[in-house]
Amino acid sequence: MPTTEILWQLFLVFLGAKLAGELALRLRLPAVVGELVVGIALGPHALALVGVPGPDLLGYAGSAKHAGELLHGVFDILGQLGVIILLFVVGLEMRVEDIAAVGPRALVVAVGGLSVSFVLVFAFGQAFGLGSLTSVFLATALVATSAGIAARVLGDLGQLQTNAARLILGAAVIDDILGLVAVGVVGGIASGRGISALAIVTLAAETSAFVLFVALVGRRIIRAYSVHLDRLRLPNATFAAALALCLGLAALAGMVGLAAIVGAFLAGMVVAETREHVDLDRQIRPLYDLLVPIFFVISGTRTDLTMLGNPSLLMLVGGVTALAMLGKLIGCGLGAIGVTVRDRLVVGVGMMPRGEVALIVAGIGQSVGAISESLFAVIVVASIATTIVAPPALKWLLTSGSFGAKLTDETHRRDPRNDDLTLVD
Amino acid sequence: MPTTEILWQLFLVFLGAKLAGELALRLRLPAVVGELVVGIALGPHALALVGVPGPDLLGYAGSAKHAGELLHGVFDILGQLGVIILLFVVGLEMRVEDIAAVGPRALVVAVGGLSVSFVLVFAFGQAFGLGSLTSVFLATALVATSAGIAARVLGDLGQLQTNAARLILGAAVIDDILGLVAVGVVGGIASGRGISALAIVTLAAETSAFVLFVALVGRRIIRAYSVHLDRLRLPNATFAAALALCLGLAALAGMVGLAAIVGAFLAGMVVAETREHVDLDRQIRPLYDLLVPIFFVISGTRTDLTMLGNPSLLMLVGGVTALAMLGKLIGCGLGAIGVTVRDRLVVGVGMMPRGEVALIVAGIGQSVGAISESLFAVIVVASIATTIVAPPALKWLLTSGSFGAKLTDETHRRDPRNDDLTLVD
Predict the structure, then answer these.
(1) Are the CB atoms for B331 and B97 separated by under 8 Å?
(2) Which domain CATH number covers A107?
């Protein structure tokens, strides 16, 4: 096994992620945009420094196809570990009481954004002649706001304490959960159960049952047993137990036909209930720093931008991006009850950024042949575009008038410490 | 790519490592012994829960051979990352002044142990009819004391401050460096340069030159530029830079024909010079906790103990283990100048444990066909045996008489904080 070649590519991925992340932050963009762009640049469709087997690997594997699969497999698992850690951290930051606090108003915003966005993108896909299955994957990929990117954008603008920000974050959190259900559903479709109404209802029920079971039963078990971890001689036993739970639930979710990230997210949410939460936040950070950027860079390497030279695809990407933005603007804007018109706009724009869910669904779609290489590029470009547009648009909305006033009398329920550990930085 | 199967095996590896580590610590053995044993139990030659492709992977890969190679490749890279992090941490704990402090006496102990151990095991291999190349790999694998295990054993016995302990740790540190040179040499042999005296001298010179260049020039560059890391907007930029250096030097070492761990070790040693050292120790720990046990468990899974049912192999493993112990006892004992006879015995026994170097050399040897599957098992068993024997033997020597008195007037140069972050726990 020629590990040197793979190590070198891993080094390029990691170094590229960090340099591009730094550059993005200096341009006041989320680091994740830099990571995706550097992935596109390093990948087989551009510089070909990453994701292309070198002579040693070709010699070892015997054939180009086999060598490519080996390289793909190794990066796939590392990226999967990254996205598992990402969703574990999302879960760690999320508490049942947080969601209860923003309440039904945030739920209306989330469901409004999800449904309008889904309907618009799905209809556009159908009108474009993409076929039902492909249109479902495309629309599902762009259904969920990235809570991590939304929190980061609001935090960068110093607006985490505003009324609109609380609504956005609450809705984004609910979005993440509904997005996971959607991933569960497309995961089930991918495993060959088809897209009949019955199959979708069954899968949604299964996912919800898994989520509820772990959240309710698992929480009690963890609460009862986590106090005994101190008795172990193993150093950092609590961290080891949390990580084992994360890997175990991720694998279990995969085994019952859901996406692995559903399990990782639940593991994070369950572990967040223990008193060791703060320490875990700190300990998970280095794993996050190493593995999460790998997921985004690798997603970038699988993106072939040259395809956008094709006028038809360029039209597709323009339409999909516009409708993905419009879907959130209309759905979330209409769903934001009892706020000013400008607040409705702020909520709609704040809910625009797509992120990890889009890339995960795109990956699942690609693995079953429902998402072609060119559609993968469309989804990545739409994710980048929605993430790039939100910060300046929000800034303009928030600073050009009286709306920027902060609600200092109400303390935001999110712990500022958690905001420091933003999901995508 | 059926990631669920691989995730599940990874979960078993991680959970097994932690449970076995806990059990080993309760039996007053180093955790690494538990990790190797649990690997043997989980692996294809016993329970077959890890390292055997399941139905999904077989379906994806098309053939059993291809599926096995994919699984092997993924675990290989994760184990490689583990051993890279391990050697990075060894480097982080090592300072030029530490080695200078114990000075020439420790060098004599190290060289004595290395040479007698090599000659005895090599001669036994030849007498056993193993052939020159195989005998070189076998002897090289068992040449180096594991500084991590030695430090752990002495720490567990509360003897880190004694005169003999200082000599052992100093010698083990030098052993690690000379062991890396040996790994560089066998790595070069593995890449087809043969084992002529000229080739060995060239490789040793190359390794030394690489080590000296990075240690001297790299150190200056790091010292000059590390202060600028604070200016970056990236969170945890120092940690990211240290990790990038670790991956980069590991890949570079591989590219110039040395073992990747040589680069990782140097990266750690160079980074240890910066003022952020303490914080890095803390941040690298979670990566260590996740990845290092994977290396030892995976090494265990590749070990087929049933082969020891063969009387000839049982004789080989008995002879190799006895000579590996005797080599250190004689070589280090004779090399320990100016101490009592009992001190000589303590130093000899303390230098017995083998660890990561043995498994790395065995892996390189296996990849070039010089180490058969049965010899791999012999090396793993010898490593486990030397590591199991040392603690009780040392305890008996140290507590059964006047020698147990501690030298409280001399403070040991090693920072106790570092001993907390032991290499193999």
Answers:
(1) no
(2) 1.20.1530.20
**Chain B stretch 385-404, residues whose beta carbon is closer than 8 A to a beta carbon of chain A:** none
Instruction: Output the six-digit token pair for A182.
Output: 């959607």
Residues near A36 by Cβ (< 8 Å), separated by ≥ 6?
A: A296, A297, A299, A300, A303, A380, A383, A384
Kindly report, residue by residue over A58-91, the tens digit of the pLDDT. 888 888 888 888 898 899 899 989 989 988 887 8
Alpha-carbon span A327 to A408, nearest angstrom: 31
Q: Report the distance separating Cα A267 and Cα A258, nearest Å.
A: 14
Measured distance CA(B118)–CA(B131) in Å, rounded: 15
Q: Please enumerate in sequence order all residues whose Cβ is within 8 A of that of A115, keeping only pairs 6 or more positions apart, or say none.
A: A331
Contacts of B14 in chain A (CB under 8 A): 240, 243-244, 247
Give the ranges where B336-401 is alpha helix by DSSP (H): 341-350, 356-367, 373-399
Q: Please state the φ and ψ torsions of residue A9, each to the nearest 5 degrees.
A: -65, -35
Question: Is the Cα dihedral B165, B168, B170, B173 positive or negative?
Answer: negative
The secondary structure of residue A231, as a DSSP letter, is G
A248 located within any domain: yes
Per-position DSSP letters for A237-300, written without gaps between them: HHHHHHHHHHHHHHHHHHHTTS-HHHHHHHHHHHHTTSTTHHHHHHHHHHHHHHHHHHHHHHHH
Q: Provide the residue range defining the domain that includes A277.
A: 80-403
ipTM of the assembly? Answer: 0.85
**Which residue in chain A has the smallest CA separation from B289?**
A240
B59-92 tens-digit pLDDT: 888 888 888 888 988 998 999 899 899 888 878 8
DSSP state of A161: T
How many C-beta atoms lie closer than 10 Å to residue B374's C-beta? 17
User: How many helices (H) and strands (E) in chain A?
Assistant: 18, 0
Structure tokens of A364?
A: 């699942």
Q: Which two tokens stand for residue A262?
A: 């559903």
Give the closest-approach CA distance of B189 to chain A in angstroms: 15
In-domain check, residue A412: no
- A211 lies in a domain? yes
pLDDT 10s digits, B236-262: 888 999 999 999 999 998 887 777 887
- Nearest CB to B287 within list A76, A254, A287: A287
Task: Say if CB B245 and CB B269 are below 8 A apart.
Answer: no
Among A1, A236, A247, the residue with its CB nearest the CB of B14 is: A247
Is residue B307 within 8 Å of residue B313, measured between CB atoms? yes
CB contact under 8 A, A234 and B31: yes
**Residue matched to tokens 């020159």:** B132
Q: Could you give phi then psi for residue A146, rounded to 5 degrees? A: -85, 110
Coil/strand/helix, residue A389: helix
pLDDT, averaged in runs of 10, over chain A (425 residues): 88 97 88 91 94 88 86 90 88 70 85 95 94 90 84 73 79 79 74 67 78 79 78 87 94 82 85 76 91 91 87 93 96 89 91 87 84 92 90 81 41 37 39
As given in the structure block, the two tokens for residue A36 are 């995706």
Any alpha helices (H) in B144-257, and if so which ranges?
147-156, 163-188, 197-213, 219-225, 237-255
What's the predicted TM-score (pTM) here? 0.86
Alpha helix ranges (H) inside B226-355: 237-255, 260-271, 277-301, 311-335, 341-350
- Reduce the DSSP state of residue A343 to 3 states and report it: helix
B342 contact partners, CB below 8 Å, separation of at least 6: B397, B401, B403
pLDDT in tens, B188-230: 776 665 666 776 777 778 777 887 788 778 778 877 777 788 7
pLDDT, position B53 = 92
**Domain total in chain A:** 1
Query: Is B170 within a domain?
Result: yes
Q: What mean pLDDT comes out for the span B37-48?
A: 94
